[in-house]
């Protein structure tokens, strides 16, 4: 390709020189004024400059013309000697003028080429930005960019990618790696095309890739925003659903519990009292089931943020203990906590449910008068809560399963049946707090021990300190 | 003759709950008016003498919060909010708007009765001269002497702790929100930063409670506030 152009340019140069010589020969033959011969050669130089791409052709022709004129058309003919001093001056001027002309034409041509390239560059960029206004996906953007690159480099084997293939094929080269952008995008072209790129093309390629990168960034932001909006909408729907379920379940429970309680108080017949009491108990059980399911849904269905605030642990314990005592009558719960105020980041309501469920679990398993101890220990970066009971403990085979949902093998008695959810929720809530829970049988006496550990620092705060 | 404060208005859209409350409270000696919409409830309230309102927050026509605002424009009649919503912020909103107490469904009839009695007692105390000496269990608070006694022993309270306990006593049996306490103690809206209050309360508990994790007097209402026990 390169040799071909060189050959073409040499042909032009030689042909024009030949044409000027023939024309001059004719003039000379018809005895037309010899000075005009110079004009033919000058014209040939100008045309050569116009049609070739390097100065050397024109320069060669300037000197060749002077020599040819000297050899062919000045006396003595066919020698390089000159008798008339006029000719010497004319020839020197010919060389000077033709060199100047050659240079001027070349400059003109370059300026013209340059302006054409610039206008082409702007046209390509304009078309690209115009297209980018309408794209909505990554694929469309990359496609538009590839089109623009093909136009810019006038080659077909070019592509835009978001990630460079590793390893890159040996005959391919990446384009424009120096642009700093948040969204990575690279062009890949055959190696030889990369070497042939001129400054203008490099500029253009850079502009194109930068435009694509900006467009990709815009699309990414758009998609992120849409995703965030969808997430918010989803959360809203879910919390509405939860709310309406909780409303729909609690409303009838309220009247069942209230009415049965009232019948129990008002009736004089023992049978009716008994039945009303059973209804009340069942409704209470159902209520705790509903509470547990709602908590579980809140904790389990993914990314719902817990309403973690800094809460005094003693308040949460107090609420859980009071609820357990209210619902179970006489139980003995001992609390051993450090005198310092322990502030723990948590969702207080859910954590109260954790403690309450553990207490309920212990109360249900107790054979005689339930006795439970709660011990709180403060460690450097976490707090440990030990809940111990004096019941029969947990069978070894059940130990690994107690936190599984609907696992109710543990001996239940007439204190009431479990929901099979209580401990599963305990674990889910503790894990949602980045805490840990374990269970074991106590060695010193019969009974089971649950240990909950909760981090004392909010995660976001600990991030800040890094 | 001093009228006995026993005229109740129940605004509740669920008919079963309305019936149960009406029967139960009538049996306990109250005169009950019932309404199933906010509109109906408000028109009963303005045309008849009502001592206390039991208000369901989830009414079909108006939001319960709007009803509270309308009532509070010209009446101090106690409002007990009944709600199946466990969103704490809604309870707090209702309380801060002027509701006296709340019950979360499902509640027991004895709880309902206790709340009504507390609110009516506060209503009658508002009209009479308030006793300068409060007491519950072994705890005695003498406002005039600025003295607290627990089981005959003097308890030394800081001025802020005394103020806190006095405010809880003035609202004995009723729930008091964090915001209300902050406003009472620090005199202005203290934002949502309740840390100082928690610490103050923890200090007070350590002076009057045997075990702060099993409080006898000051009960915690998680996410809402505190309640000084009535018995």
Which helices and strands occur, and which strands form pairs?
The complex is a heterodimer of chains A (466) and B (231).
Chain A: H1 2-29, H2 35-51, H3 55-73, H4 85-132, H5 138-153, E1 159-161, E2 172-175, E3 186-190, H6 191-196, H7 199-266, H8 270-300, E4 309-312, H9 313-328, E5 332-336, E6 343-346, H10 348-365, E7 371-378, E8 382-389, H11 422-432, E9 436-441, E10 448-455, H12 459-465
Parallel strand pairs in A: 5-7
Antiparallel strand pairs in A: 1-3, 2-3, 4-6, 7-8, 8-10, 9-10
Chain B: E1 7-11, H1 15-27, E2 31-35, H2 38-47, E3 52-56, H3 64-72, E4 79-83, H4 88-97, E5 101-104, H5 109-127, E6 133-136, E7 139-142, E8 147-150, E9 153-155, H6 159-170, E10 175-177, H7 178-186, H8 195-208, E11 218-221, E12 225-228
Parallel strand pairs in B: 1-2, 1-3, 3-4, 4-5
Antiparallel strand pairs in B: 6-7, 7-8, 8-9, 10-12, 11-12
Can you describe this structure?
The complex is a heterodimer of chains A (466) and B (231). Among the domains of chain A are: 2-116, no CATH class; 305-465, Histidine kinase-like ATPase, C-terminal domain (Heat Shock Protein 90, 2-Layer Sandwich). Chain A has helices spanning 2-29, 35-51, 55-73, 85-132, 138-153, 191-196, 199-266, 270-300, 313-328, 348-365, 422-432, 459-465; strands at 159-161, 172-175, 186-190, 309-312, 332-336, 343-346, 371-378, 382-389, 436-441, 448-455. Chain A is rod-shaped. Chain A starts with a helix and ends with a helix. Chain A is built from 12 helices and 10 strands. In chain A, helix 3 runs antiparallel to helix 4 and helix 10 (348-365) packs antiparallel against helix 11 (422-432). Mean pLDDT of chain A is 83; it is low at 410-415 and 461-466. Chain A is an alpha+beta fold and 466 residues long. Chain B is of the alpha/beta class and 231 residues long. Chain B folds into 2 domains: 7-127, 3-Layer(aba) Sandwich (Rossmann fold), CATH 3.40.50; 133-228, Winged helix-like DNA-binding domain superfamily/Winged helix DNA-binding domain (Arc Repressor Mutant, subunit A), CATH 1.10.10.10. Helices cover 42% and strands 22% of the residues of chain B. Chain B is built from 8 helices and 12 strands. In chain B, the strands form 3 sheets. A 5-stranded parallel beta sheet of chain B has the order 2-1-3-4-5, with helices on both faces. In chain B, strand 11 (218-221) and strand 12 (225-228) form a beta hairpin. In chain B, helix 6 packs across helix 8 (195-208). The longest helix of chain B is centred in the middle third of the chain and has 19 residues, at 109-127. The two termini of chain B are 29 Å apart. The model of chain B has no long low-confidence stretch (mean pLDDT 86). The chains are: A alpha+beta (466), B alpha/beta (231).
